[in-house]
C-alpha cells in the first residue's frame, strides 16, 4: 500500500512546502513510500512535459537528499504525464538567459547528477513516456530502466546543434557499448522503445505504467538478500571515475555551458527549435 507523502518538495511556485500541507497535485515532485517494501516512487510532476527548469531540478535534488537521509531502500523514478517522462532541460532556461540563474541552473543539474548517479540506494527509471536529452540523462543515472512501448529516448543534443557534456556521455557509456554510445551521441539518435532495448539503453519493455512499476519493483527486490553496504560501495566504486571527473571540473563545466549557450549561433538555433515546437503543439 502506498502512503503519501514522504516529503512535500518544492511547489510549482518554487516555494518549499511542508510535510502534508498541500495536495500532491501542487508538487513538482511527488514522493510516495511503500510501507511494506520501503521503496520510494518519485513522480516528476511539472505539466505538460516535465521540462527540467531550476525549480524542478531543485525539487529533485531535495528529494534525493531526503531519500538518502532516510536511508531509502530503493527508488523508482517516473512521471505523472500520460505520454512524457521528461522533455529534458527546459529550453527557456537557455534561451535569452540571465547568466546568474543559468549558472545556478547548471550547478543544480550537476547536483542532481551527482546525487542520482552516485546514490547509495538502488534506483530504477519507469519510463512511461518520451524521454529525450535531459530526460534520458535522468533515466541513465538510474541503475535500471523499464520503458513503456511506443515512445522515444536518447541524447539528441547534436540534433539541436549542441554538444552533450562529457558526464552526459559517460552516463550513456555506462549503460551501453562504447560503439553504440558513440553512434547514438554523434547522430543524436532518438530510439524507439524496441530499438532502445536492442542497444541496451533500456533493460526491459513494459505494457503500461503499472507494468513498468511492477517490473521496477521486481528489480529492486533482487537486492533483498544483498548487503546494502556492499551493494552501494560496489556501485559507487564502478561510477567513481565519472563522478570524480566532474567534481574536479565543476566550475569549468559551468563556464563552458554559459559560454556555449550564449553563443549567437546557439541562441538562434534554440529560437528556431522553440518556434518549431510551438508550431507543432499549435496544430
Ligand atoms: C559543459 C557543457 C558544455 C557545453 C554544453 C553546451 C550545451 C549543452 C546544453 C544543453 C544540453 C541540453 C540537453 C537538453 O535536455 S535540451 C532539451 C531537449 N529536449 C527536446 O529536444 C525535446 C523537445 N520536446 C519534444 O520533443 C516534445 O515536446 C515531446 C516529445 C517531449 C512531447 O511531445 P508532445 O506532443 O506531448 O508535447 P508538445 O506539444 O511538443 O509540447 C508541449 C509544450 O511543451 C513545450 N516544450 C516541449 N519540450 C520543451 C522543452 N524541452 N523545454 C521547454 N518547453 C518545452 C512545447 O513547446 C509546448 O509548449 P506550448 O504548449 O506550445 O507553449
UniProtKB/TrEMBL annotation:
<dbReference type="GO" id="GO:0006635">
    <property type="term" value="P:fatty acid beta-oxidation"/>
</dbReference>
<dbReference type="InterPro" id="IPR001753">
    <property type="entry name" value="Enoyl-CoA_hydra/iso"/>
</dbReference>
<keyword id="KW-0007">Acetylation</keyword>
<dbReference type="GO" id="GO:0004165">
    <property type="term" value="F:delta(3)-delta(2)-enoyl-CoA isomerase activity"/>
</dbReference>
<protein>
    <recommendedName>
        <fullName>Enoyl-CoA delta isomerase 1, mitochondrial</fullName>
    </recommendedName>
</protein>
<comment type="subunit">
    <text>Homotrimer.</text>
</comment>
<comment type="pathway">
    <text>Lipid metabolism; fatty acid beta-oxidation.</text>
</comment>
<comment type="function">
    <text>Key enzyme of fatty acid beta-oxidation. Able to isomerize both 3-cis (3Z) and 3-trans (3E) double bonds into the 2-trans (2E) form in a range of enoyl-CoA species, with a preference for (3Z)-enoyl-CoAs over (3E)-enoyl-CoAs. The catalytic efficiency of this enzyme is not affected by the fatty acyl chain length.</text>
</comment>
<keyword id="KW-0496">Mitochondrion</keyword>
<keyword id="KW-0413">Isomerase</keyword>
<keyword id="KW-0276">Fatty acid metabolism</keyword>
<dbReference type="GO" id="GO:0005759">
    <property type="term" value="C:mitochondrial matrix"/>
</dbReference>
<keyword id="KW-0443">Lipid metabolism</keyword>
<dbReference type="InterPro" id="IPR029045">
    <property type="entry name" value="ClpP/crotonase-like_dom_sf"/>
</dbReference>
<keyword id="KW-0809">Transit peptide</keyword>
<dbReference type="Pfam" id="PF00378">
    <property type="entry name" value="ECH_1"/>
</dbReference>
